[in-house]
Amino acid sequence: MAATKTHLLGVDLGAGSLKASVVRADGSLAGEAAQPLATAIPHFGWSEQDPAEWVAAFAQAVPQAIAAAGIAPSEIAGIGLSGGAHIPVLLDAQDRVLRPAILWNDQRSAAEARELHEKAGQLIIETSLNRVNPTWSLAMLLWLQRHEPEVIRRVAKLMIAKDYLRFRLTGTWETDFSDVLGALMSDWRTRDWSPALCKLIDWPVATLPPVVEPSAVVGGVTRAAAAAFGLAEGTPVVCGSNDTTVEFYGVGAIEPGMGAIKLATAGVLFLAADRPVVNPPISCYPHILPGLWYTATGTNACASAHRWVRDQFFAAEGFAGMDQLAAGVAPGSGGLLFHPYLQGERAPYWDPQLRANFLGLTMRHGRAEIARATYEGIAFSIRDLVEQARGFGQSFGTVKLLGGGAKSATWRQILADITGLTIERPGNGDASFGAALVAGVGVGLFKNARAAVAECVTTLDRNEPRGENRAVYEELYAIYREATQRLQELDHRLHALFVK
Predict the structure, then answer these.
(1) How far apart are CA 299 and CA 349, in angstroms?
(2) pLDDT per position as a tens digit, 67-98
């Protein structure tokens, strides 16, 4: 008897781990698994990963998720993938990876970004809706041309992160418009690669993949991939999209004005719109739903800063113990502030030389205050994003909360109190779930993208801002902002002394 294909597999390639989720047709989670990923930091501000490790993590997480779901691989109706935007993977003529992939939080191409903006900033914004900075592939590729020309001479194919993983499943080569725009090499009017922007860095268009819709079925799992990854040969695979696009869709943000905050490796703020909203350096991307767009702006260190503090101060207790300690401290952490700039900072400062610090330490402070100040400091960095967006005329009401940090009730309430926003936590709020929904649309398990949301997206709980905490946080936020500005020059001097 033929297997009933009522499950979907979504796989997200995150900065810290690869996660696979098996989702039923009603949106409930049948099984999941994750594998950690290591990031190399060979120099200050650099951030790289080996795509071979992505493949190894995929080979472990996918069979584990299927086993946790208690189903046979043949019961999977379709597979969707997502991954971080801006991450170029360069292959030679034999489809061999030429070098480690540069991640979105890498800051090495700051000089190239400044040069490109000075040379053609208006053209780049008008064509690809966004301002160049070190997180975009355009600046990264220019850096590689200058510093690793022997690698660039051998490039036959450019893939974005999720496209490389999918290539290992299907052997096909394509991408979606959101990732083309994320490379900062697109023309938003044609929804394709821009020859004019490619020419700015003399990048050959022949190395760039065809562009298809995120829900387009691009192939099936090959025999070799089925054996390597524990899948059924021929299982349909859709193109997918970058992580922010699928997860924003997957929490049900499908109407203009709906927002979301992501507490993951980076902190990200989203807002849906019915047209492109161009307010650089806030990013603008196409939505999964045709005709919709969304803005996104992000910090460099969110859960990554949380993890760093845990590893340094709370290794024995782990996240749960750190969370419990933070919950027992009053708002404001006794006057202790944390700036989470462990890898410089993106929005709203765009300064790779900013440094992290605990400000205001006294003998009265202990590990519990450090724990809570960490949560509060990251929430202040999210507040920076909210205030920048408000300055551009954007408004927020209720927002969906995404990412691993959403599991902490303490962190959720701190975020609501510091931003003044009502926070809702979806039943399934990560990119692997969104990728699975996109796959379901592509293989016809759902009538369309809106129907998938209506049938599958739920809300677990909500946090309202507490008035008694708002006044404390308003005063602390003002100090947080002023301290960032006053310390900026000293951060730069420290960088010049010790970072070569």
Answers:
(1) 9
(2) 999 999 999 999 999 999 999 999 999 999 99
Report residue 496 as tokens. Answer: 């010049």
Name, in order, each residue with C-beta under 8 angstroms of 357's C-beta and a sequence gap of 6 or more. 338, 339, 341, 487
Distance CA 328, CA 372 (A): 9
Residues 126 and 169 in one domain: yes
Please state, in angstroms and rounded to a whole number, the distance separating the CA atoms of residues 419 and 397: 11
Give tens-digit pLDDT for 445-489.
999 999 999 999 999 999 999 999 999 999 999 999 999 999 999
Which residue range(s) make up the domain with 263?
252-428+466-500
- Take residue 483 and report the two structure tokens written for it: 């301290």
335-358: per-residue pLDDT in tens? 999 999 998 998 899 898 999 999
What's CA 24's distance to the chain center, in Å? 24
Predicted TM-score (pTM) of the model is 0.85
Rg of the chain on CA atoms, in Å: 22
Dihedral over alpha carbons 30, 224, 179, 17 (to 10 degrees): 50
Identify whether residues 326 and 391 lie together within a single domain.
yes
